[in-house]
Structure formats: structure tokens, C-alpha cells
Target: EOG090X03TK
Amino acid sequence: MRIELVILGSLVLSTTVLGNAYYHKKQFYPSVVHITKSNPSMMVMYIQALVIVVLLGKLMKRVFFGQLRAAEVEHLIDRSWYAITETCLAFTVFREDFSTKFVALFTVLLFLKAFHWLVEDRVDYMERSPIISWLFHCRVTSLLLVLGALDWHFVQAAYTATLTQGASVQLVFGFEYAILLTMVAMVIVKYGLHTYDIQRENPWEDKAVFLLYAELVI
Model:
């Protein structure tokens, strides 16, 4: 009930801000300028954007994971605090680039990191789960493809921005997404090995060796 009130309140506030700006300016572009120059209006729009991100996250969680296990939630919270602190320290080098675009890119980065951690935990859970359904395979493979494509896109975008604009905060974003891309590759290897092990009649004793080699290479 509490989250529904937050969603409704943010929707009412953002609608009021947009309606008030359009009522006074009568046109789209002047209305946008009016909102961007008003700190209270921008704060309302930031809150609305954050609510949209949370709702999107809940939708993706429902589609790709269903119900999260208690261990997955605990790992997600622990990793989030560490990642926020680590990333903020890295971004202090480019603090002059702080802007609305930076906040948006930073939010997207943390959003995607969370799903990388969750899919890694879910694949590791394959070893301890007695039954793996076809829905599990569909969810994991689909999410890995989506995450891999997004990571590659953001790496390319950061590379292009660095070539054209020089060293900037995009350099840090590029390295972060490159790390996430290697993480996706490692999870794919784990998923393949776990799937092969599950389909065997007898336990695969050499799986740990292959996992070790994969970690060393990737």
C-alpha cells in the first residue's frame, strides 16, 4: 500500500508540474525550458523518473526471475552498497562532468549491475536445485542475451565518446560495462557447464576443473 501511495503521489506531482508549465507557456519547447530552469520542478521530475525505474525493475524481476530467494535479496543489498561506494570514488576524478545526463547514466549502470548479480546467483543455484524447468532456461538465456547486448552497446558508446570528446566520465562507464560484459561471458560458461552436468546420468567430476579454467581465462 505504501509503494502505491508513492507512485500515485509522484504521478500527481509530475502531472501538476507539466500541466502548470504548459498552461503558462502554451508551447512544448518553452514549457520544457521553464521546467528545466525550476529546481522544484526538476526535483519532481527526478522523483518521477526514479519511480519509473523502480517499476521497470519490478517488471523485469517478475519476467526474468519470478520470486527472488532470500539469499539473492541479501546478496543484492550487500553488493549494491559496495558498488555505489566504489563507483562514486571512481567518478570523483571526473566530478566536473556531473550533470543530469551523468545521473541518468549512473542510474542505468546500477540498474543493470543488479540484474547481472541476480542472474549470476540464479545460475549458481542450478547446482543446488533438484529440478530445472524449461521456464528457468528461457528466463536465464533471454536475460543473458539482453544484458550482453546492452553491455556491448554501452561499451561501444563509451569508446566512441572517448575518441570524439577525449577522456571524460564515459571512460569510467566504458570500463564498468566491459567488466559486466566479461561477467556475462562467465555466467554463460557456468550455465553451459551446469546444464551439461544436469543432463548426465552420473555426476560430472571434472566440472570444477573446467570452471577454474574458465575463471582464469575470462
The chain has two domains: 1-64, 68-217. The CA atoms of residues 197 and 205 lie 9 Å apart. The mean pLDDT is 85.
